[in-house]
Write a structure and sequence with these properties.
The structure is a single chain. With 450 residues, the protein is of the alpha/beta class. The protein is 52% helix and 13% strand. It has 20 helices and eleven strands. The strands form two sheets. A nine-stranded mixed β-sheet has the order 5-4-6-7-3-8-9-10-11, with helices on both faces. The chain has a two-stranded antiparallel sheet with strand order 1-2. A hairpin with a 4-residue loop joins strand 9 (403-411) and strand 10 (416-423). The chain is globular, with a radius of gyration of 26 Å. It starts with 5 loop residues before the first helix and ends in a 6-residue tail after the last helix.
């Protein structure tokens, strides 16, 4: 039986009729074999010819119709009438393309599986040539879609000029962390970046990641949280506690009397959080599982994701299965895969990781890049690295009580330290009030070191 969804194929072709940008996205994201319907495949090839400059026909049913069979030309008019004006072109193209790729993969797996089955049962012995031919089909499929991505300087500069002329501070291609001082210091996060959040235990790295996730989702962008250390229910409570203004320890551990005392606030908090577009994936999960979950979420939401949060990267299943001698290489492959995922989804990916103990052996325990476990494999793939440091964790008499330093160790732009308030009991981070921020700067910037 056919493995494809005619409605989604028609929908993505409809957006291409309505918007050249969507047509370019469709041609970039899809392959002819992604379309299970022959007429739809024929229409895609016509769009590909126009976008590729092989035809100067207009991108409308008349122009497309001149490049295809009469049956496909009729289909073009039907699609344009059905979808051209009615769909949200900006949000539909990419998730539809993702669905088509998945359907195409299913069709290929079915067909190659049948070929292997037929080859294995049709005769007593299987010639080496037959095995080689089947192996070559698998290799050819792995290379499918890996087109040349070269682009001329003129094309790049045209896009740069267009971006600058249409610059908006709330551009969806840049994601706000929800923390004013951090965004002002290092800038909002571009939507194809890989960001590493690293700290020693009990510094609040998971809290920071979930706070950022909630801030992005509350602003309207869907977020996928992959929780590989804590359960999805523990993360749910971590998200709920600061919104409900209920101590996190009560939500996680009780006792019953405290839960009953805060029940009204808990109920209101759940009501406030209800509907915020956050989806969670628990352990175990491989890189492939996370990619699939993100693609499925984008398809279900019908729009791009605001962020993917992975807590913690060391517990990704690919790394758990690797031998000790291969761990560093596998970690590099996994983080490179997350960097590629950020580019594919056009949304930032935040990885949470733990620092090694080296920083605790120094008098100044503030983290450095070299403190990241397997630092070369993790740090080289990240465009931004943020480490957390709490002076009051090491010195209870510290004047920086309740302040966490977000130390930007690496960034394609400014680096430095941003102090934020940390309320451990709830738990949550927040911007410091101006007076406290000024006092912190007076204490720590007097020597110009930060």
């Amino acid at each position: 039986s056919p493995i494809y969804d005619p409605d989604k194929e028609i929908r993505i072709l409809g957006t291409a009729f309505f918007s050249r940008e969507c047509a370019e996205t469709m041609v970039r994201e899809c392959e002819p074999d992604d379309f299970g319907d022959e007429l739809n495949r024929e229409l895609f090839l016509a769009f590909e010819r126009i976008i590729g400059g092989q035809s100067d026909a207009p991108m409308d049913p008349i122009g497309i119709g001149s490049l295809v069979s009469p049956a496909a030309a009729l289909r073009a008019w039907e699609i344009r009438d059905l979808w051209g004006e009615a769909t949200s072109v900006a949000d539909t193209t990419r998730w539809a393309a993702g669905y088509l790729r998945q359907a195409s993969e299913k069709r290929w797996l079915r067909d190659i599986g049948l070929e292997f089955l037929q080859a294995g049962t049709s005769r007593d012995t299987l010639a080496e040539d037959d095995l080689a031919a089947l192996r070559q089909k698998v290799l050819d499929h792995q290379m499918r879609g890996k087109r040349s991505r070269t682009v001329s300087l003129n094309e790049v500069l045209t896009k740069v000029h267009e971006e600058l002329c249409n610059w908006q501070d709330d551009d969806p291609r840049r994601v706000s962390s929800g923390f004013r001082d951090l965004d002002q210091r290092v800038g909002a996060t571009p939507n194809t970046w890989l960001i590493l959040i690293a700290a020693r235990p009990s510094m609040g790295k998971t809290v920071l990641a979930t706070n950022i996730a909630y801030n992005i989702a509350a602003a309207g962008a869907p977020v996928l949280i992959v929780t590989l250390e804590m359960s999805v229910y523990e993360i749910g409570k971590t998200v709920l506690a600061p919104i409900a203004n209920v101590p996190g320890k009560v939500l996680q551990q009780g006792p019953q009397a405290e839960i009953e005392r805060h029940l009204q606030a808990i109920t209101k908090g759940i009501s406030d959080v209800w509907g915020v577009p956050i989806t969670m994936l628990g352990a175990p999960a491989s890189l492939a599982d996370i990619r699939r979950a993100a693609q499925d979420m984008m398809a279900a939401q019908g729009r791009q994701l605001g962020a993917v949060i992975v807590d913690r990267v060391e517990y990704v299943q690919d790394l758990q299965r690797s031998k000790a001698s291969e761990y560093r290489l596998m970690l590099g492959n996994v983080t490179a895969g997350f960097k590629q995922l950020a580019n594919e989804l056009e949304c930032p990916v935040f990885l949470v990781a733990e620092l090694n103990r080296e920083c605790e052996k120094r008098e100044d325990k503030r983290p450095r890049l070299s403190d990241i476990r397997e630092s070369g494999a993790l740090e080289e793939n990240a465009q931004r690295v943020i480490a957390l440091y709490r002076d009051d964790y090491y010195d209870p008499t510290s004047r920086d009580k309740g302040i966490t330093e977000l130390i930007v160790l690496k960034n394609k732009g400014p680096i430095g330290t941003v102090p934020v308030a940390f309320v451990d009991s709830y738990p949550r981070f927040a911007d410091l009030d101006p007076e406290s921020a000024a006092a912190w700067r007076a204490r720590h910037w007097s020597n110009g070191s930060r």
